[in-house]
Structure prediction request, 703 residues.
Amino acid sequence: MTGVALGALLVPLFAGAVVWFIPERLSGPVAFAALAVGGAGALVLAVPVLAGEPLRAVDGLVALDALGAFVLVITVLVAAIAAAGSPAYLDHERALRPRDRGRYWALLLWFIGGLLTVPLFDNLGLVWVAIEATTIVSALLVGFARTPAAIEAAWKYLILGSVGIGFALLGTLLAYASSIELLGETSDALDWTRLMAVAPGLDPGLVRLAFIFALVGYGTKTGLAPFHTWLPDAHSQAPSPVSALLSGATLTLSLYALARFHLVATGTLGPGFSSTSLVVFGVLSLAVALPFIVAQGDLKRLLAYSSIEHMGLGAMALGFGGPIALGGLVLHLLAHGLTKASLFIAGGGLVERGRSRRIARLSGSLTQDPVDGRAFLGGALLLSGLPPSALFVSEIAILFGGFSAGWSVPAAIAAVLLALAVAGFLFHAGRVSFGVPRIRSTDRPAPLRAIVLGAPLAAVVVLGVWTPQPLAVAIERVVAVLGGSGV
Amino acid sequence: MTPTILIDVCAAGIVVLSVLLAVTRSIGRSIWLVAAQAALGAVAAIGVGISLGLGHLVLAGVLAFGAKVVVYPLILRAMLRASSVSVERHPYVGPRLSLVAAIAIVFAASAGTADLDLPASLGGSRALPAAIAAMLTGLFLMMSRRKVLSLLIGLLVFENGLSLAAFALTYGMPLVVELGILFDLLIVVIVGWVYARRMLRVFGTLSTDDLRSLRG
Prediction:
């Protein structure tokens, strides 16, 4: 069963090569079929793990614990939203050339297929390889529209992403160097479970250095300030479904990789060093994102800076530690992924209809575009953490966890910064939703799109008031891993 | 020659080439310098692999040689021919100041790694400071140059330092990881090539001066 599911998970990667060459009209359906198989495979692997049975397969090459399984589920959900939003993007994008449709689906399959493999590896070197591979494929998607701005964004993303992730590789190397005296020069000396088992005996100097480089490297990919400069460009210039994946899935997976290093560092050095670093860079990210959110004129950049803000809060939660903040973090990553992905798809629809990314030119979208306009406003309210959003629960839990774990000053600063960012974000969302209608109106019924956009947002509302028992158990297991105990 | 001496000699060569790269303005010459740097790294890996009987290291070295000494220069030369820019004419930092910066980087790298307690299994190789110096020089090149090709060359210098670090710290990563890394690097260069061609088509030049529209 595991073998079949693993094979299914790899289907999107292979299907990408097929879709590149088959006739254009077949590319969409084949891609959807491949993604459905891949997603089903991922869920078949992840759900039993979340129910309490960690997975090891292929001689330990594949190892899935609750943390990996949870981010795998988030990836599947975000990928589903992005794929469902893709046909509308392709139908309306004016810069497409012949054969671009097939290429888009092929690249999207490779991107999603790559993302799905990231949580599977126990070996930190292979985690790096998978994240780097998705970076490169997504660079091709960021510049897909071939406008000068898109090429600029893709170039920055490729270069800064490569340098950043180069540092993450150096961190991985140092982790390997710190362990080979204990574990020997074997291929499993980079396995996270082995590293955790011997963490107290690792060389502290090397582990500290390894964490610093991993923080710079995966912090760049997570969009932590001051390494975030590529993010607003890439996330705003990419096709909207790709923006959804970048914000909802790749940022989550990069934070996931950083969390693995944080746990090893905590095991070796004790709780002080890496936690403090994460909290500092988290607060810095909130502070850096705030002015750009408040003074933002571009709809997709607004969403991108909001991602920096939310990842900053995620890094802080990781640094705070303790079951409350970590539980908040787990819920936060899920709810942020769902909400942000829907917002990028809805926002992309508005941008297409207004023929502009400028917020000032998109006003009145609530009445002009019932489906996307409503989804955008609803998503914006949920993303702002107003009750009954799950993000309300998660943010309160993270801040409360910070206070109760003795991080009062950073938690208080974060609370103020978050409140200001919410005010700025909602102000812009209001400008888009209300006011003089400036975007073209549509009354074309779009029931399918309403479901694609509405279902994730509805889920975020439900999670804000009620946590189903299996999910609560799953979150508990993830928190156990993040707490360093439930390997 | 013992493995340690071989590594030290190659590491020294890599540092010297980094400094030369920092003062060179001809992009054509830079392509050869960075290839020579990669060749030194690959030779060190192959030599140490043979003398210690580490098959995976030899294989990784041979593959790295093929990719970085044969394939990358070919791609970069093709890009150079396609663009009209062959000299980094107005870098943000001129050659003299670059020389000072490159030397400062070498000293900073050796000072910064002086008190590290490296695993004894590696025979006290001094390659780590050299590797970090090459990485930082690559970063410096990327920050101080304007041309797209110079940026890619800076990235490759950074990568050469990184692979030397890999090698100095651990005598190579597990083979499956090495293969993945090489594969990723190859695609980075190819994607860089794809975008350089698009830039030529859209902007007409390969200068990053045109890449300044996204702000705020």
